[in-house]
Specification:
Keywords: Membrane, Transmembrane, Transmembrane helix
Number of strands: 0
Protein name: DUF1206 domain-containing protein
Number of helices: 10
Distance between the termini: 21 Å
Strand content: under 5%
Low-confidence stretches: none
Organism: Umezawaea endophytica
């Protein structure tokens, strides 16, 4: 093991880093619980909030202690991001297959990026400046890509990539492979069953949301229409207007809630 890897491992195993990362994962879970609440409002046709993680930050901002809570949330998310960076660098050593271990490290890297983005968004909300509408931002980006040579092909490739991620996330929930990353033996019997159920619901619900985003991006690629693209907010509101959309939204809301609860358990029992 090289000097850099040894240093990274020492930092990762530092009790302060471990506590900070696990506390950060709790905040990550809180955002998904709030997102479940916002999605439920979409089901009821009464959602003035942006239906994504930034909308969840907006919910925090609307409370009496909003700015203070947002700064605490930002610190927690940055701590979570640091933990995921270290996991991406030297984590998941308990996974025997190299390809699978690399896949999990890539997943940790993506969560680190998400944590940083949401952390900065929390700071923007705390300072009183809106971070913008995510669907509009994605539509603008899609329009820029479509304007490039082979732009439709590139957007289509992104859509396929998102759908592949959605499949992996759903599969993780169906096969309960998320349990590989937890010390399930540290949890009481009743808690283990609860974590197993909420974990399955959470990963499957999260995967369904990704799948809807992938389909919207794919439709935008086929029709060369960036307005048909969008992020999670656009995906959920589009689904609300479709046959059986309310049922699927309810499933996704339950999934987001389950994933948030899973994050709380993972904060305690993650290897």
């Amino acid at each position: 093991m090289g000097t850099a890897q040894r240093t990274a491992r020492e930092v990762n195993e530092n009790p302060v880093v471990q506590v900070a990362g696990r506390v950060g994962m709790v905040f990550y879970g809180i955002l998904y619980v709030l997102l479940a609440f916002i999605t439920a409002q979409v089901v009821l046709g009464d959602s003035g909030e942006q239906a994504d993680q930034k909308g969840a930050l907006g919910q925090i901002a609307s409370t009496s202690f909003g700015p203070f809570l947002l700064w605490v949330t930002a610190i927690g998310l940055f701590a979570f991001a640091l933990w995921q960076v270290l996991e991406a660098a030297i984590g998941y050593t308990w996974i025997g297959k190299k390809r699978k271990r690399v896949g999990k490290r890539i997943g940790a890297a993506s969560r680190a990026i998400t944590g940083v983005i949401l952390g900065f968004a929390a700071i923007k909300y705390a300072s009183g400046s809106s971070s913008g509408d995510s669907s509009e931002q994605q539509q603008e980006l899609t329009a820029q890509v479509l304007a490039l040579p082979a732009g439709q092909f590139l957007v289509g490739a992104v859509a396929i990539g998102v759908l592949v991620i959605a499949f992996i996330v759903i599969r993780k929930g169906v096969k309960k492979s998320f349990e590989e990353d937890l010390n399930m033996g540290e949890l009481p019997g009743g808690t283990r069953k609860f974590v197993e159920r909420t974990g399955r619901i959470g990963w499957i619900g999260k995967g369904l949301a990704y799948a809807i985003i992938g389909l919207l991006v794919g439709i935008a690629a086929v029709n060369a229409d960036p307005e048909q693209s969008g992020g999670l907010d656009k995906a959920l509101h589009t689904l609300a207007g479709e046959p059986y959309g309310v049922f699927l939204l309810a499933v996704i809301a339950l999934g987001f809630f389950g994933f948030g609860i899973y994050c709380f358990a993972a904060a305690r029992a993650h290897k």
